[in-house]
Write a structure and sequence with these properties.
InterPro entries: GlcNAc_PI_deacetylase-related, LmbE-like_dom_sf. It holds the Pfam family PIG-L. This is PIG-L deacetylase family protein. This protein has 259 residues and is an alpha/beta fold. It has a single domain, classed as Rossmann fold (3-Layer(aba) Sandwich), CATH 3.40.50.10320. It has helices at 31-45, 71-85, 105-118, 140-153, 164-168, 199-208, 216-233; strands at residues 5-7, 21-26, 49-56, 90-96, 122-126, 178-182, 191-194, 242-249. The chain has an 8-stranded mixed beta sheet with strand order 1-7-8-6-5-2-3-4, sandwiched between helices. Helix 2 (71-85) links the parallel strand 3 (49-56) and strand 4 (90-96). The longest helix is centred in the C-terminal third of the chain and has 18 residues, at 216-233. The protein is globular and about 50 Å long. The protein starts with a strand and ends in a 10-residue tail after the last strand. The relative contact order is 0.19.
Length: 259
């Protein structure tokens, strides 16, 4: 991905880093498609294995009262189809209640368990810090995902004495190399992925979530505008589109174990 990425004081170097598995955590079906589907399409096209974990069923989403009885199954099917469009078939759910997500040890333990099972090179999640410039990015469930995953990534995933029953079940401690966060404050974003060649796949994935979009044309205009804005901030040429991330090196060659 070296030709598709721009670093802005990020430790991640796409031409140097080996990424084989990625595990993505979001709050609701459709979050990942808005935030990172272009990057995910690029990864899967390059042979990277990508898995999703969605913490709630999105049961409080939608805009049509007629959908209330079937909204959970509708959103699960929408996410399945959207994931397939960008090369993802492995989708997990924690089945927490939409709007009630909290960083409890019960949820954190489930996240630690899944990370230890998949042992990814990159964990991608929503940002734990509120975006005051566009507060819609900072749904309380989004912030909770960021806090849950950050707490899981350090120190619990790599501490063999955290949730010891996991190690007893054969899920050994694991030192994650990279944490990528999205939907946070622009001032935190330090890495941009050029997704110009994957816009069609990203928009197609977003459009699948018909239960959530009363104005699909307006949604598409807004997404295209945000992608162009990201590319401009990254210094990419006119006409390019990018997704933006806050990349954190969790364990590198210079990392000293701290737990």
């Amino acid at each position: 991905m070296s030709s598709d990425a721009t670093s802005a004081k990020s430790p991640f170097n796409a031409s140097r880093e080996r990424v084989e598995r990625v595990l993505c955590f979001t709050a609701h079906p459709d979050d990942i498609d808005f935030g990172a589907a272009g990057t995910i399409a690029a990864w899967t096209a390059a042979g990277v294995e990508v898995s999703y974990c969605i913490m709630t069923d999105g049961d409080a989403g939608g805009f049509d009262p007629a959908h209330r009885e079937e909204i959970i199954s509708m959103r699960a099917e929408e996410q399945r189809q959207a994931a397939a469009l960008v090369g993802v078939t492995d989708v997990h759910y924690l089945h927490e209640r939409d709007g009630y997500l909290e960083p409890t040890h019960g949820v954190i333990k489930q996240v630690v368990k899944l990370i230890r099972e998949i042992r990814p090179d990159v964990v991608l999640a929503m940002h734990p810090e509120r975006n005051w410039d566009r507060i819609q990015k900072s749904h309380p469930d989004h912030l909770a995902v960021g806090e849950i995953v950050t707490r899981a990534v350090y120190p619990a995933v790599e501490n063999p004495f955290a949730y010891p029953e996991l190690a007893e079940a054969g899920l050994e401690a694991f030192r994650l190399p990279w944490l990528w966060l999205f939907a946070g404050p622009e001032t935190r974003e330090n890495y941009f992925v050029d997704v110009t060649e994957h816009i069609d796949a990203k928009l197609a994935a977003i459009r699948i979530h018909t239960s959530q979009h009363p104005d699909p044309e307006g949604m598409e205009r807004a997404v295209r505008g945000m992608l162009r804005h990201n590319a401009s901030r990254a210094g990419m040429p006119d006409g390019r589109s990018a997704e933006a991330f806050h990349v954190v090196e969790v364990n590198g060659s210079q990392t000293i174990a701290g737990f």
